[in-house]
Amino acid sequence: MAGFLDEGFVVEDRCDFVFLPSIILLQGTIVCLDALTVEVAKEIAILGGRGMNARVQTRRFRYHAWVRGAHNILRYESAHDHRPYAHKHVYNTFGDGRETAVVDIADENQIPTLGEVIRELQVWHQENAVRIKILR
Questions:
Q1: Residue pLDDT, tens place only, 107-119
Q2: By C-alpha distance, which of 83, 71, 87, 75 is closest to 117?
Q3: Could you tell me if 43 and 25 are in contact, meaning their C-beta atoms sit under 8 angstroms apart?
Q4: Domain span at 26
Q5: Which segments within 52-98 are labelled E, that is strand?
């Protein structure tokens, strides 16, 4: 996250790690330029080892991005009761705010990391900066 803060796209990282006996939780929000906000909820299982040498694997995640005071942009989620695969929700940010698509991500190797989601939002922001200012 430090790199995104240094670049200036991320203006505030309000995420915290909570260390439990067998899992690590990453929870909070990330505030980006023009009030783009990302809510982060991630559960990481500790498979073995300790400290910096621990083997870990993401079990569940949710990255929900929106323009504060306006509409959603996207939401990535792990599989859950009604969706057998990780998936991405896409929204009509500059229209009625409704969901326009849900895209399944069946290949685990295609599930984006939090950093990749932030980078995707950075590109989205560059493409829509003028429209965001009108929206807000």
A1: 999 999 999 999 9
A2: 75
A3: yes
A4: 2-135
A5: 55-67, 72-77, 86-91
Identify residue 71 by its one-letter amino acid code: H
Maximum C-alpha span of the chain: 50
Q: What is the CA radius of gyration of the chain?
A: 16
pTM of the model: 0.92
CA angle 55, 60, 62 (to 5 degrees): 125
Question: What is the total count of domains within the chain?
Answer: 1
CB 83 within 8 A of CB 104: yes
Q: How far is CA 108 from CA 39, 111, 117, in A?
A: 22, 5, 15
Element (H, E) at 41: strand 36-48
Banded pLDDT at 43 (limits 50, 70, 90) = very high
